[in-house]
Each structure stands twice: as C-alpha cells, then as structure tokens.
Amino acid sequence: MKQFVAPAKIFQDRITELCYLGAVSVFESGHVDLVPLWRRVLIGRNPRITLLRAALIGLVCWVTFRHVLLPVRISGISMEPTLRNGSVNLINRLPYWWREPRRGEIVAIRTTGTSVMYLKRIVAMPNETVEIRAGRVFINGEPLAESYVKNPDPWEMPPRRLGRKEYLVFGDNRSMPMELHVAGVVRRDRIVGKAIWQGRPDP
Q1: pLDDT over 70, % of the chain
Q2: Of 118, 121, 102, 120, whose CA–CA distance to 110 is shortest?
Q3: Domains of the chain with CATH codes
Q4: Angle at CA 10, nearest 5°, toward 6 and 11?
C-alpha cells in the first residue's frame, strides 16, 4: 500500500527547511539546492556575477561623483537666505558641457582645483555693461530684477563692460559691505558646474 502524506504536512516540512537552512531553489532538473540565506543575500548564487555587478556599481559611482556630480558643503553666509551655511548641495557638470551658463544660475567657481569652490549667482553675462548704483544692479543701463536679494547694502560700482568669456557673479547676501564679499568678474573656464539645488529664498 502506498503511503500518502497530507499536503499540509508537506508544506510544514518545507517551511521548517527554509527556516533552518535558508532559501530553497528548485531547478528544472528537479534538484533541490539549499543555499544559506545569508549567502544568497550577500553573495548570491554566483559569486563571480555578484563581484562583477559590485565592480560595475562601484565604477559608476566613482565616475558620477568624481566627474559629473560633485558633492559640496556650503561654508559661509554669502549665499543666504537662498543657501544656508552648512547645507549640502551637488554640483552638476553636465549642463555646461553642451551650453553656456545663464543669468540667475547658481554656479560653482573653482579656485585652484575642485576641492574648494565658491558658490555664486551669475548676475551679468559676457559682452554686457554692468553697473551698481545704491545697491541696485544695472545691465546695459536697465535695472536688473533680483527677488532673491534681501536688504542690500548700498554697493557702488562704476560701469564696466565684460569681456567675451567673462561673467559677473555675486552672492545673494548683499547686506554686508561690498569689500567683505568674495565676488566679481570670473572667466568661463573657472565655472565648474551648476548647483542642482538652486534654493528658494525666504519670503
């Protein structure tokens, strides 16, 4: 006489095996491969493929955060209230590979390398004549609307025409005297990239 095992009993036995040994893989051949759960999670069934995937992910991360997205921590108050002191941002280098920087964008400006950079806003573009009167910026004789600037100090700057590859950059915090601000005219080759988080100043 053949002996039959109730389906519930079979299910219970399989659950016990899973809990004790880990995941169970049933191949088309009908062979049951018992793989410890910790190994399946950390290494997978094929260690070579897992190592290849890990190396590929590591390479992508290295390229991304070394050459495309540069993480920066803001130190200073020159961009307040738009960007706060101590906040973290990412500098995206991709946009300026196929287009030029635009007015109003917050950009990273390198000093001697990319380990230390300034974050400033582009105020004037190449070949424009810029002037500051009583804290108000004028471009080619027309006042520039800057809603991000709060309580500006009465800065003064005589008219100056920018060169073909020159940009005028300032921080948003212009409540301090102009001589205390690290800003001014920068050349195009010093602009590294655009800040991903352009910020939103307090109302």
Answers
A1: 70
A2: 118
A3: 7-65 (no CATH), 70-195 (2.10.109.10)
A4: 115
- Contact status, residue 92 vs residue 101, Cβ threshold 8 Å: no
pLDDT band of residue 27 (cuts 50, 70, 90) is: very low
Give the largest CA-CA distance in the chain: 107
Predicted pLDDT of residue 160 = 94
Q: Do the bridges between strand 191-195 and strand 88-92 make them parallel or antiparallel, or are there none, so unpaired? A: antiparallel
- Burial string for 152-180 (b: 16+ CB within 10 Å, else e) reads beebeeeeeebeeebbbbbbbbbeeebee
Spatial separation of the C-alpha atoms in residues 151 and 147, rounded to whole Å: 11
Residues 6+ apart with CB under 8 A from 22: 34, 35, 36, 37, 38, 39, 40
Q: What is the pLDDT of residues 38-64, one digit of tens each?
A: 566 566 667 777 777 777 787 777 666
Coil, strand or helix at 126: coil
